[in-house]
Design goal:
- With 292 residues, the chain is an alpha/beta fold.
- The protein folds into 3 domains: 47 residues, no CATH class; 173 residues, P-loop containing nucleotide triphosphate hydrolases (Rossmann fold, 3-Layer(aba) Sandwich); 64 residues.
- The protein is 43% helix and 14% strand.
- The protein contains 13 helices and 11 strands.
- It is globular.
- The N and C termini lie far apart (47 Å).
Length: 292
Amino acid sequence: MTTTKTIPTESTLRMLLASGMAEHVQNMLDIHPELKYKIEDGELVDSVTGAELWLKQFVTQDTDCIAMKKDALKLSAIDDEVLITGESGTGKEFIARSLIGDRPGAFKRINCAAMPENLIEAELFGSVKGAYTGSTTDKDGMIFSANRGVMFLDEIGDLPLSIQAKLLNVLQPVDGKRYVRPIGSTEEKQITCRFVCATHRNLLDMVDKGLFRLDLYARISTFELNIKSLAKRKGDIPLIVEALGHRFKIPAKAKEFIERYQEDITNDKIDLSLNVRSIERALKRYDILGRV
């Protein structure tokens, strides 16, 4: 008869450590290398780096999301563009950050919905002194600053059409290389960053309405990772609450929260399924006020 090993949870490991059972915890980690933790200075810490570290922070037991994470790990090793889709607050940035893989460069993020057109152009592409009013020095854009790293364009569906055309020009290789031209400059700079985009919008629908360029969509969507909404994976909510509890150093409160509201969450009596941020706010209210 085959026996199944019971894999201890992070909470169990932390509880055992707090009880002075470090040797027992180490034995459990040796038996279950898939846990990918280690003990440092009496604390439980992650033993993974790069893509796996960020993917580990996207907690899920949903089959589709587990498959999506496996795809993200594979994609972290290549340089192609990736489009991440899903509702707001579902964890798209964790997946985006995982796609830096082992690259030594920086992860640069810009929210395309949060800046006016004239500012986002300068932020992305850079500018030279005198290019516009108030431009007193040369400025490297975020795309150039992300060299050998990742340029993350969050909410790319809100990027103005005029900037979409300029971004497409950057994404088109010339002799296998890519270049960016700062505003006001006659010279181009070679770039080596990877581009990752995310949106909660239906870009193909926007293409049909003339709000998003088809050629840009084709360029950024060779690989697409979709994240299911929490409303479709309510079983993840307790896992997320538990993870947030450890992050805020209130694991006992997180456990109380789960026990008190599990049935209400399942039966839609309490609106925690909107996104991770709403769960975070509810947990903070519960910690301070004892209610959500």
